[in-house]
Amino acid sequence: ESADGTSIAWQESGARRRVLLVHSFPDASMWRLVLPYLPDEVGAVWFDRRGRGGSGRGEDYADFSAEVDDVLAVAALLEPDAVLVGHSIGAVIALETLRRDTTPFAGAVLYEPPLPIDDSPTPGRAEMLTALDEGRHEDAVEAWARKSVRLPEPAIEAFKASPAWPRAVDAIWTMRREGEALR
User: Fold this and answer.
1) What's the burial of 152, exposed, middle or buried (CB within 10 Å: 0-12/13-18/19+)?
2) Which of 81, 113, 122, 140 could pair with 91 as two cysteines, CB 3.0-4.6 Å apart?
3) 65-75 vs 89-100: helix crossing angle, rounded to 10
4) Rounded CA gap, 96 and 114, in Å?
């Protein structure tokens, strides 16, 4: 349970020496592709960020402090030598976590954090938000995939046919609050 009472669903595997994985979009299932490549002596802990999978939605937010609370709540269950690993927006949340408290971590790997360089709007964000406002969640995911991530058409078609697509449709609403917090 996080500081504000939001329940955080988490899983673990492997050895005592751990990496704590903070996912990007759509949910923690993305780490299934990475877990088989970890050495046998390294275990992993991963969790669904608030509003995704088995975790509670929590309140909307203007910054990442609630998500930092979530990371620290999971980290408190571990030995104090985990390596914090974050991908994309998860890397930003990991960085914000380290700004608040480095104590639980032996190190960190931050992969592709989408840190803003200037005030330019994120490509496709307006189209994604319009689709969200109109309740067209599949169109919102497609706008994000096509214009923000710039996936090529074959990758978009593969994404739509994959088990990740319905999870992305369920979680697309979180992109509004994350985008605002990132700005």
Assistant:
1) exposed
2) 113
3) 80
4) 13
